[in-house]
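[recover] target loaded
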C-alpha cells in the first residue's frame, strides 16, 4: 500500500470494480490508515466494497493478487534504471510468494513490482502457478506514454492511437513503429506528411516516467491505471488485446508482447509482423532480461536460497 498500491486500491473502490478487496502491507499503521480512509470515501460513493487488512485467510479466495511492493527511491539514478530496485525487491518477492503458496492462492497474479519482467518470472517460478496465470503490467504503461506523445504530436486524442512498445519494462524497450496507426494511416507515413520526428517522440515517451519521478519522487497514476485495466480484463473475462509482460516460449522469458487477456489469464498470444530491425531489438531486450534472471538464479544458488 505504497504510492502505487494505494492508488490501485482507490481506483478499484471508487469505480466499484470489485466487491471484496484485501489490503496488505508490512507497515500495519499505514495499511490500516488507508483502509479507514477508503471506508470514509465510500460514504460518498455509489458503490460498496468489503475491505480486509493483512488477513492471510483471504488469499485462498482471491481471484487476482496485485503485487505493488517496491522502493522507488532506489531508481533515483541518471538513467532511471528500474533494476536499481532489484536489490530490495528480490528479497521481498520470495516472502510474498511463500505467503501466497502457504495460504492456498490459486488465482491470477499481476506484477507491478520492478524490475517487472524479472520479478514476474520470479513470481511464476516461486509460486508454481501456470505461466499464463502470472502477468506483469510491463509496457502497458510505456505504450500508453507513447500513444500520449504521438497524440500530442499529431493533435489527436491518445485513445485514437494504436500500437505497442515491446520488450523489457525498462531501458531496453522500444516502440515498434510498424504497429502504430493513427487517423487510418501508419504513423510512419503520417509523420512524414506532417513533418513529425518519431525519434523525438520516442525519446519523450521513454523519458516520461523519469520526468514524473523527477517532479514528485514517485510515479503512481499511470502505472496504477495500467494495473487496474489488466486486473479488470482478468476479472471480467474481457479478452482484451494488450502489451503485457507474458512468457514467450520463442524468447524463453517474460517480456512485453501483445496478448489477449481474459479470465484464464493469457488466452491467446499475438504474432506481430515486425520489421527486421524491430525483431533484432526485441531479441536484444529478451537477452538482457534473461541475463538478469540467470544472474539472480546464480546469486540465489550461491547463497543457498
Amino acid at each position: 500500500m505504497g504510492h502505487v498500491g494505494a492508488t490501485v486500491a482507490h481506483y478499484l473502490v471508487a469505480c466499484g470494480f470489485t466487491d471484496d478487496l484485501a489490503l496488505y502491507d508490512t507497515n500495519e499503521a499505514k495499511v490500516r490508515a488507508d483502509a479507514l480512509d477508503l471506508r470514509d470515501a465510500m460514504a460518498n460513493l455509489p458503490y460498496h466494497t468489503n475491505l480486509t487488512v493483512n488477513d492471510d485467510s483471504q488469499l485462498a479466495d482471491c481471484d487476482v493478487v496485485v503485487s505493488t511492493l517496491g522502493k522507488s527511491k532506489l531508481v533515483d539514478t541518471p538513467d532511471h534504471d528500474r533494476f536499481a530496485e532489484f536489490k530490495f525487491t528480490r528479497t521481498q518477492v520470495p516472502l510474498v510468494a511463500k505467503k501466497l503458496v502457504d495460504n492456498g492462492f490459486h488465482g491470477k497474479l499481476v506484477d507491478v513490482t520492478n524490475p517487472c519482467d524479472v520479478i514476474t518470472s520470479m513470481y511464476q517460478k516461486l509460486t508454481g502457478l501456470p505461466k499464463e496465470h502470472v502477468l506483469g503490467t510491463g509496457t502497458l504503461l510505456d505504450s500508453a506514454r507513447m500513444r500520449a506523445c504521438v497524440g500530442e504530436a499529431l493533435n489527436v486524442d491518445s485513445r485514437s492511437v494504436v500500437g505497442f512498445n515491446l520488450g523489457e519494462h525498462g531501458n531496453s524497450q522500444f516502440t515498434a513503429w510498424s504497429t502504430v496507426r493513427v487517423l487510418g494511416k501508419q504513423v510512419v507515413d503520417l509523420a512524414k506528411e506532417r513533418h513529425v520526428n518519431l525519434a523525438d517522440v520516442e525519446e519523450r515517451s521513454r523519458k516520461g516516467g523519469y520526468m514524473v519521478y523527477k517532479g514528485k519522487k514517485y510515479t503512481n497514476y499511470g502505472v496504477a491505471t495500467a494495473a487496474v485495466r489488466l486486473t479488470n480484463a482478468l476479472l471480467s473475462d474481457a479478452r482484451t488485446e494488450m502489451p503485457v509482460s507474458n512468457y514467450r516460449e520463442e524468447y524463453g522469458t517474460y517480456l512485453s508482447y501483445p496478448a489477449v487477456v481474459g479470465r484464464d489469464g493469457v488466452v491467446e498470444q499475438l504474432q506481430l509482423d515486425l520489421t527486421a530491425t524491430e525483431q533484432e531489438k526485441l531479441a536484444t531486450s529478451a537477452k538482457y532480461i534473461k541475463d538478469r534472471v540467470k544472474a539472480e538464479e546464480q546469486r540465489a544458488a550461491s547463497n543457498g536460497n
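[recover] notes: The radius of gyration is 19 Å.
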